[in-house]
Automatic annotation (TrEMBL):
Residues 152-577 form the Glycoside hydrolase family domain. Keywords: Carbohydrate metabolism, Cellulose degradation, Glycosidase, Hydrolase, Polysaccharide degradation, Signal. It is an enzyme of class 3 (hydrolase). Residues 1-28 form the signal peptide. The keyword Ribonucleoprotein does not apply. It holds the Pfam family Glyco_hydro_9. This is Endoglucanase. Belongs to the glycosyl hydrolase 9 (cellulase E) family. It comes from the Eukaryota. The lineage of its organism: Eukaryota, Metazoa, Ecdysozoa, Arthropoda, Crustacea. It comes from Cherax quadricarinatus. Residues 508-535 are annotated as: Disordered.
Amino acid sequence: PAAAMTGVLTKSLLLGVVTLALLHTGWAERCEFVEITDEWTYNYAATFSAPAPADFSGLVVDLYFNRPVDSIDFYQGTAEKVDDHHFILRDDSLSGTAGLIVECKFQAHFPEAQAVVTAATINGVPICEGGWTTVPPLQDPCDPTGMKPYDYAQVLCMGILFYEAERSGHLPADQRITWRYDSALDDGSDVGHDLTGGYYDAGDHVKFGFPMAYSASLIGWGLIDFADGYEAAGQVEYGRAAVKWATDYFLKAYTAHWEFYGQVGRGDLDHSYWGRPENMTMERPSMKIDEAAPGSELAGETAAALAIASIVFKEADPAYSSKILGVASELYEFADAKRQNYHISIPDAAAYYQSFSGYYDELLWAALWLYRATDDATYLDRARGHYAEIPTSPNNRLVQFSWDDKRAGAFSLGTLLDPEFTEYATGIQGFFDWVKHEAPYTPAGLVYLDTWGPNRHAANVAFLMFWNAKQGLDVEENRSWGQGQINYILGDTGRSFVVGYGVNPPKRPHHRSSSCPSMPGSCHDGWAEKQEGPNPQTLYGALVGGPSEDDTYTDDRIDYIHNEVACDYNAAFVGALAALVEIN
C-alpha cells in the first residue's frame, strides 16, 4: 500500500536563504523518483514516489530544486520553505517499515523557468542517486611557498581565506569556500532595511557589529603598513575583499543620519541552534543605536574601520574611498557628541561583547585614523583631548590589545602621527615592558593574557611589536618577541593552532557550519556532540583559541574557550604574518 501525503503550505521561513549556485554544486538530471503529472504556465503537479530507506515513525521529505520555486501546495501534512531551492514536506502521523513506498503529491509554483527536483532525502537519507552532486572536499587553495621556518605567506593566504567562510548574505561568484552558500537574505526585513552581508562573528551566526568593525580595522591596518608583505604573498586583492565585505555592510547598516544597526541576531536564540547558517529559521532581530539610544564604542570603532578602509581604497577605488570616509566622519561625530556605552542601547550585546574599557579608547583610535585619512589637524587636537579623558586608575591598567581595548593600538599610531605628544610613546613602551617582563607566560613561551583565546591576544601584541619595530622601536627585540609568539602558534610546541596548516593542526574547531557535512547531508542540534571525527569541512586558516596556561590543549569541538574561532582572532594575526613575510 502507498502512503499518501497531502497538505498546505503552513510556513514561509525566509531567514537563512541559500542559493545552491552552479559554482558550488553540480545540478544533475532530475530525481528519478519525481514524475510531473500535469503542467501549466509557471506551475506543475507532480508525484514523489520512493521506497523508504529505513523504518520510520513520522516522515520528512526534503526536496531540492535546480531553479527558484515560490511555493509548494501539499495537502495532508505541512510544507516548509527553507529557501527558494529547498522545501521540506512533513507528516508526523505516518509510520512504516523499510521498503514501504512513500508517495507524496504536490504542486510547485515557480517565478520563471521550470524548476525540477534534482535531489531528495527521506528522513535525512539521500535517495536520488546522482540527483545531487555534492561538493568534493575543499582542497587548500593556498599553495606552499617554501618559506622557513614556517610558511608565513601560505598561512597569510589561509588566514584571509577564513573570512570567506564567515560571510553572510549573497555570496559572490569568486567565493573560494565552496561548502558555503547564500544565507540570512532576510536580515533587516524586521525593520524595513537591507542588512544582508557582513560577517558571522565566530562559530555562531550572530552579526555583532562592534568586533566586526575591529576585525575590519586590523585587517585594513595590516594592508596599509605591511603592504609589501601582502604584495609578496599575492594577497592584496583578497585582503581588500575581506575589508570591503565588512565596509559594504556598514554602509547598509548606516540607515540614516546618526542611526546605525550594530547587531543582527539574538545571542541566546542563535547559540541554541547547531547547524548551517543556510538552514537557519530562528528570529534574527535587528538592533541599532541612534540619537535617542547612542553607542559610542560601536560608532567610534566603525568610524575607525571606515577611515582605515578609505586609505586602503584611496588609489584602488577613489569614489568608494571618499564615500566611506564621509560616513566615518559622521559616525565619529555621533560617537563623540552622544556619549553612551553601546551595550545600554543594544542590551543583547552585553553578554557577549560589552566594552569594559569604555569608549574613550575608541574615540582616540577613531580620531587618529581620521587624521591619517584626511590630514585635518583638528583630529590630532581632539585625539589629545580623548587621551586626557582615559581613566588612569589602577583598575584601568593596560594589559591587552583587543576588540575591547584599543589603547595600545592608538598609542602606537599616535607615535607616528603626533610624535610631539610624547605620552603616546610612553604609553606603548610601558605596555611592551609589562608584556615582556611582568605578564604571565606558558612554560613553552606563549604570553598568556587571557584564558579565553590566548592565541589571538598573543597575535594581537605580536602585530603591535612588528609595527613598532618597523617605526624603529627596539627593532630586533620586538621582532624577535613577535616572531616567537607566531612561531608558537604555527608549531614550535609540536602542534599547529591553525586549522589546515602544519603539524597536528586542529580538526574539530568549535564552528557550526564547518562541522556539518556537505549539503544535503543532515546537520542538526546535537550534531556537534554526536560527530566524533574531524569536522567534515576543513576551515582553512582559522586560528583557534589556544592552550591552557600549562600549554595543554585538547582538540574538542564543544570547548568554545580553547577551540572556538572568530573574526577578531584572525584580524591582527594576518597582519603579523604579513610583517613576517616582509622580514623574510
